[in-house]
Amino acid sequence: MGVTAVLMLPLLLLGISGLLFIYQEVSRLWSQSVVQNKVVVITDAISGLGKECARVFHTGGARLVLCGKNWERLQSLYDALISVADPSKTFTPKLVLLDLSDISCVQDVAKEVLDCYGCVDILINNASVKVKGPAHKISLELDKKIMDANYFGPIILTKALLPDMISRRTGQIVLVNNIQGKLGIPFRTAYAASKHAALGFFDCLRAEVEEYDVVVSTVSPTFIRSYHVDPGQGNWEASIWKFFFRKLTYGTHPVDVAEEVMRTVRRKKQEVFLANPIPKAAVYIRTLFPELFFAVVACGVKEKLSVPEEG
Q1: Is the per-residue pLDDT at 232 higher than 50?
Q2: At what angle do helices 189-209 and 140-147 cross, to 10 degrees?
Q3: Whether 250 contacts 226, CB under 8 Å
Q4: CA angle 77, 78, 82 (to 5 degrees)
Q5: pTM (predicted TM-score)
Q6: For 161-217, what is each residue's pLDDT tens digit?
Q7: CA pair distance 283, 100, nearest whole angstrom
Q8: What is the pLDDT of residues 50-69, one digit of tens each?
Q9: Which of 12-21, 23-32, 49-58 is predicted most confidently?
Q10: Which end of the chain is flanked by fewer CB atoms within 10 Å, N or C?
């Protein structure tokens, strides 16, 4: 009996692994079929996440509109996608220069896209500008730039494309946001404010357009780290704040976020929160035990975190 059990265990594990592999492959193929022939607009396509979203949706057969503020980097992304694509299963991406912090040009870009394809099926609002520093040292001009790029730009583009989705009674809008749309972290006042504003707007919009079968989704990871940056050991003291901050800072890989965006589109999820247990716990603590959360955050301020600008 014991020998039989020992022999059966590897077979059981092998069977489970096989079923998981089959499930993943079926899920991947299903995801691709969902976006095939769909017009998909991706903002800030030249960022790490933007490139991965472009790769995933291009492989799935979407008609991509790749937006970015640097033409050379857009062209490089275009070449990378075309070089590995199967021409019989993919479409040539359209490249559009777009800087969402320059809100005066957003309407024109939306018109250009609609004139080209006639409609937009999926809009992925991915663009984001970050800044880090004490509130009193961040100029109002920089505050405004952050709000333009992270809030006003995405909502202007959304409003420009939304009437077509409503009239066709179909479409999906995906906001790639951040954990700081749910809680505030010291030295990121402008960034957190813009993310709170964006999340509030799209939460309200979701209810407004549901009757027209337009889906609004928000994907909120922690920080999206670069391709080759992994958490280092460093010289971290054993304090609650530093443990929390370290877990919060080293966030999700762009590949993982892009795949979650695809799953969100396929399953028409309304809200996704991508984080390890520490940031997730922080969100619930902020809601249920705000005084405890504020005390932990205040401890972080006393640690005199470095304040260089990012992005």
Answers
A1: no
A2: 30
A3: no
A4: 120
A5: 0.81
A6: 999 999 999 999 999 999 889 888 888 899 999 999 999 999 999 999 999 999 999
A7: 29
A8: 999 999 999 999 999 999 99
A9: 49-58
A10: N
CA atoms within 13 A on the CB side of 303: 19
Tokens of 276: 């390890």
CA angle, residues 190, 194, 197, in degrees to nearest 5: 140
Extract the tokens encoding 268. 């028409």
Q: How far is the C-alpha of 111 from the C-alpha of 88, rounded, in Å?
A: 29
- Name the residue with tokens 């504020």: 294
Catalytic status, residue 284: no
Catalytic residue of the set 78, 151, 191, 227: 191
CA separation for the pair 307, 304 (Å, rounded): 9
Do residues 133 and 49 touch, judged by C-beta distance below 8 A?
no
